[in-house]
Every structure is written in C-alpha cells, then in structure tokens.
Amino acid sequence: MPFRKALAAAAALTLMAGAAQAFTLQVAHFNDFHSRIESINGFDSTCSTEDEAAGECFGGAARLVTAVKALREAAAAKGEPIVVLEAGDAFQGSLFFTAYSGEVEAEMLNRIGIDAMVYGNHEFDLGPAPLAKFIEKAEFPVLSGNADVSADNLLAPLAEDHVVLDLGGEKVGIVAAITPETAEISSPGPTVTFRDPVAWLGGEVAALAAEGVDKVILLSHLGEVEDQKIAAAVPGIDLIVGGHSHTLFSNTAEGAPFAYPLMVEGPDGRSVPIVQAGAYSKYLGHLTLTFDDAGVVTGATGDAQLLDASVTPDADTLARIRELAGPIEELKARVVTEIPAGIDGSRETCRAQECVMGSLVADAIVDRVKGQGVTIGLQNGGGLRASIGGGTVTMGDVLAVLPFQNTLSTFNLPGSAIVAALENGVSQVEEGAGRFPQVSGLRFSWDPEAPAMSRIKTVEVREGEAWVPLDPAKVYMVASNNFMRAGGDGYVSLRDEATNAYDYGPNLEDVLADFLAAHPDYAPGDEPRITRVE
Questions:
Q1: Reported confidence tier of residue 405, pLDDT bands at 50, 70, 90
Q2: What is the dihedral of CA 111, 115, 120, 123, to 10 degrees?
Q3: Both 136 and 249 in a single domain?
C-alpha cells in the first residue's frame, strides 16, 4: 500500500521548534461514545456492579465528567485555554439509546461540557427527527459539516456547518466532516445528502482564512484512512480530531496502531497532527498545541488517557444515571442463559475475518426461519458491537452485541446476487468497514490482494451433509437483517434483486437471545466458513 507507506514516513516528521510560540491551546477529545452512559467492561459491554467494585471498569459518562473537569482545572491553573470536542457517533449502543432515542446522550454530553460535536453516521440511525431533538437539547454546537440538510424541515433550521470559538482571545475555527457513506450505512432518508469532504473542507478553510481565522481544527467523522488523505490534500488545517474508525492513537497503550499524534505532511509542507481516542468512552485524548504568531503549529504533544478505576466517576452524574436507568434495569438484568466460554465479537475480528459471534448470529438467524426453507444467513460484521464473556448472559449483554433494533428479513435471492453481496462484503476490509460478511449455510474463499469486487474465488452452499458449488442461476432462500436487506453497508444486490422479501420479522436481539438459551454450548464447528487465499 504505497499511500500508507508514504503516510507512515510522514508520521516521522518533527515540527519546527525555532519559531516563537505565541499561543498554546489544549484540546480534549473523545469519539464514538455509542451511548456508553454507564461504564464498560473489558468486552465493551455495560459493566456489572461487581466488576465496578473490583476496579475492572472503564469510561462511562460519569468518568468523562470527572476527567474533563480535571483537565479544565489544570488548564485554567496554567492560564491556557482548552476546547473539548466529540467526533461523532454519540448515538446507538446501549439500552439508554433504545429507551430514550438520544435525549440521554445529549444530557450527558451537556454534563461533560463539550464545546462542539460533529454528526456521526449513527446519529441518523432513527432518521433525522431524533437527531433534531438531540440538537435542540444540546448546549453545544452540533456541526453538520458536509452533510447537506437544507431539504430537511427539522434539521435545516438547526444546521451549523462550522463554528468559530474565542479561545484565550484567539479565534479558532472548528470545521466538520461526516462520512458520505452515511447514506449507505445509516438511515438519513431522502432529505439529507453528503458532499465530497475534500472539496467541502477546502472551501470552508478558505472562507475562514478570508475572515482572518488562521487556526482551524477539523472535527472529523471520516475514519483514520480518510483523515490522513484530508491532511495531505487540504491546506490550512492545523489539527484533525477524528472518529468513525474507532482507532486508538497512543504512545503508551500496547498495540496502538498509531502514535499520538500522527503527523502527516500537508500540501503546503506543514505537518498536520491527527488524533483519535478509540471508542466507547474508554479513553480521553489530550493534546497540547502551540502556534507561532503567524498561526503556524510549532508543537503538538499529548496522549490518550485510559479512563480506568483510577478516575473516580462524578457522584451527581452517577445518581442521575441511576435515576434514568430505573425503567430499563429489569430488562437488562433478565438472564438469558449460562455459557461455558466467552464469545468473540470484537470489531477487529468481525470486520476482517470469520468470528465466532458472527457465525453465532448468522446461525441464529437461519435457525429461526429454517422451517420456511431458509438455508443461508448473512450478517454484517459492523452490526456486531461487543463480545460476551463466559458465565451468565443477560439481555443487557445481548443488546450490547446487537443494539440497533434490526429485524430479521427473509427473501429469495439468485446465486449470482449472493456472490455480488459477498464481493461487496469483502471490498473494504483494508478500511475496517462494517460490511464484512459473516455467514451461515455457505462458505467462501477470497483473495484480499485482488481488486475490489473481484475478490471472491469460490462459494459453496450446504445441501444436506454435503458442500456443493453455489449455482449462479439458482434461487436460494436467504435470511439477514432489515438493514442489509434495504441496501445498507452497500448490499444493493439484496435490495435490488431480492424477491418475496419480508423485512418485519422479530428483532435480532430476541432471535439471538432465544438461540443462546436453546444452545448454551454453541460452537460454530471445526470447518472454516471463510478462507483467505493469497
């Protein structure tokens, strides 16, 4: 990947230290909060009272309140301004979102005291209306960036594509960008469209420069790959605070793929720092930027802070969370079953290869409708949001895995369209896209080095006890979720070529809970379903 190698080389650049440092700005940031109102465990699910008492929990809104307050107080003591930013996807991921549709997330972000946020793709999961209510409740700008909401009667009056903040007597512009793939991977509807981020940001930064704003931060929900491209293509950006790809930039966390910050050479020869802080409120990024008197960044230092048991949750926020959690505690606590070992549903695995959680969910889907003749199940890896630890499994655990309230869909599909769906599924693996296909009732091999949309090498389906080659002309009965069936994550062949479709089956979380209760010793089998050939 020559582009990535070039960027890795750019990351080794150091900033010029000789210029006068006229202005220092601290930046605190987090991204992809995903409704983690309560603290999380090592599997990114809601932490139990026992684990909290044992000091084994991370993040949550109450810890963020404490951590951000501490940073603000420390910055004030040094006489330095600080800005607190959230890079999108506050919605979706816990029962708080299921119950309150974004209103609790707005309340918690108000308590944390953020200064700006960009739309994330999941902010559109329930359409524009809940996002509009969220923005009305928010005490901070929620930036639309390159999302064109002018045709939406709810969002248009609330839209802010950028904001200029007065920080320490200096004007700092915050521009924003959201992935154009939102149209495919969420549910913005026909009234919202998405402009090209590079062209859009070029115009935004130039307009700010014309107003005399020479310090510009991009609040991005594009993902780290696109952030690096933006840094290399758009002049005038001083910092990119990113989200969407759930990437941890760190100098201290084991296995972090990028240093904090990552430095990328911009088109004007300046080095642009890029930061991101993982996901689910586990980390809080903290960067110190220094500028010379010409508005040029001369220093960028910091790291992502792990919000573990050493950070005491804010007591008032905890009390409010408990109050809000009352109506949903009974559902969360309902025991589904006991399982002997953990089930891996990690993002890193399920978006790149066969994972046990993916096989489990795909098998559960098929099992639910096998009486209708369905033999093949498809589940997008991005729809799996957590692992499950061994032992007692509650409905709260299941909802952490499948938080999107998707329904089971059944339909008929020709073999050629199944191949097209699989091609789509493996087309963006290198970007960590959520479309990677987890399967049941079929197996396939693919070549990651082949061009996108020509990577599938073999596809076989199970007939009785035997595996036979998939017949492109034959029509198969397939089950999936309604998001994929509607063309989400690029699965247009499911949308355009399916016949006899029924998209209103039971909720996927109920399907999984029932299957786990009936199969507590579930194992996906010894034969691989997905094979990489190189």
A1: confident
A2: 40
A3: yes
Counting the structural domains of the chain, the total is 2
Tokens 């993040």 — which residue?
A: 59
CATH number for the domain including 519?
A: 3.90.780.10
What are the φ and ψ backbone dihedral angles of 301, each rounded to 5 degrees?
-135, 150
Task: Grade residue 526 by pLDDT with cuts at 50, 70 and 90.
Answer: confident
Helix axis angle, 103-112 to 315-333, nearest 10° = 150
Same-domain pairing of 40 and 168: yes
Q: Are residues 150 and 273 in the same domain?
A: yes
Contact present, 530 and 439 (Cβ < 8 Å): yes
pLDDT tens, residue by residue, 46-83:
888 889 999 999 999 999 999 999 999 999 999 999 99
Which 3 state secondary structure label does DSSP give 457? strand
Query: How far apart are alpha carbons 439 and 363 in whole angstroms?
Result: 8
Q: Which residues contact 17 (CB under 8 A, 6 or more apart)?
A: 298, 299
The tokens 């191949």 sit on which residue?
419
If phi over 0 gives left and psi between -120 and 50 gives alpha, with beta otherwise, what is residue 487?
Answer: left
Closest by alpha carbon to 227, among 386, 373, 27, 11? 11
Per-residue model confidence as pLDDT tens digits over 246-284:
999 999 999 999 999 999 999 999 999 999 999 999 999
Task: Read off the pLDDT band of 21 (50, 70, 90).
Answer: low
Co-location of 184 and 265 in the same domain: yes
257 and 348 together in one domain? no
> Can you read off the two tokens belonging to residue 492?
């247009």
Q: Which domain holds residue 382?
A: 334-532
User: Residue 499's CB: how many other CB atoms inside 10 A?
Assistant: 9
- CATH number, residue 317: 3.60.21.10
